[in-house]
Amino acid sequence: MRNIMSIKLGDTAPNFQAESSLGDINFYNYLEDSWGILFSHPADYTPVCTTELGYTSKLQSEFAQRDTKVIALSVDGVEDHQNWVKDINETQNTDVQFPIIADKERKVSELYDFIHPSASATATVRSLLIIDPAKKVRLIITYPASTGRNFNEILRVLDSLQLVDNYQVATPVNWKNGEDVIVPPALSTEDAIKKFPKGVTEIKPYLRYTPQPNT
User: Fold this and answer.
1) Please, are residues 183 and 191 in contact by the beta-carbon 8 Å criterion?
2) Helix, strand, or coil here: 78?
3) Which string of DSSP letters, residue by residue, matches 190-201?
4) Of 21, 104, 156, 185, which is most buried by a Cβ count within 10 Å?
5) How far is it, in rounded angstroms, from Cα 41 to Cα 46?
6) Torsion angle of alpha carbons 144, 150, 155, 157, nearest 10°?
């Protein structure tokens, strides 16, 4: 029976030291005071992962705008990572600049519960965590190995989390950056009108909208 730490929303993301495609990394030192995205891959030289890392690389400016650092992981070694990056750059027309953790002994994978024995006893599943500047886990998404992630959704959730932290609002179904947001139920309509000068639209006493504060 595995003695694995199960990480849940709101938990502190554990620190680790590991080799990577860009040298030795201390996770906390790498993140500093930024937001972070840690995402695992079943293996190097696999087609779905190749497209994912290529697309993530193309989003580097988007992550930078959101003060977010990206770091990937798989259970292959540093040399494989470095050679695979050449393939990713060639086939996806990009330049991967973020590190890929080499986790051959699966220490980080087990620390973050990235290996699910019912799916594979050796390879990591396709998991992704968003970690805030306080090192708290704010999002956990796990996909099957055969399904590539939707990084537009990752950016959407990142925008929502940062907006929620800055303005104490909530975001409705299918919300996109720039659209109306929801006034939290704990705030009275009277106080909401004072807090959100752009106006408050009341659909029901518990369902109230206001224009996105930072637009």
Assistant:
1) no
2) helix
3) HHHHHH-TT--E
4) 21
5) 9
6) -50
Three-state SS for 13-38 is CCCCEECECCCCEEHHHHHCCCEEEE
E strand or H helix that includes residue 69: strand 68-74
The torsion of the CA quartet 161, 64, 53, 111, rounded to 10 degrees, works out to -60
Half-sphere exposure (Cβ direction) of 31: Cα atoms closer than 13 Å: 22
CATH number corresponding to 168-211: 3.30.1020.10
Non-local CB neighbours of 212 within 8 Å, separated by 6+ positions: 163, 177, 178, 179, 180, 181
Catalytic residue among 13, 22, 49, 59: 49
**CB neighbours (10 Å) of residue 108?**
21
215 residues of the chain, pLDDT tens digit each: 344 558 899 999 999 999 999 999 999 999 999 999 999 988 889 999 999 999 999 999 999 999 999 999 988 899 999 999 999 999 999 999 999 999 988 899 889 988 755 554 445 568 999 999 999 999 999 988 888 999 999 999 999 999 999 999 999 999 999 999 999 999 999 999 999 999 999 999 999 999 999 86
Tell me whether residue 93 is one of the annotated catalytic residues: no
CA angle 51, 135, 50 (to 5 degrees): 10
Q: What top-level class would CATH report for the domain 11-148?
A: alpha beta
Q: What is the pTM of this model?
A: 0.90
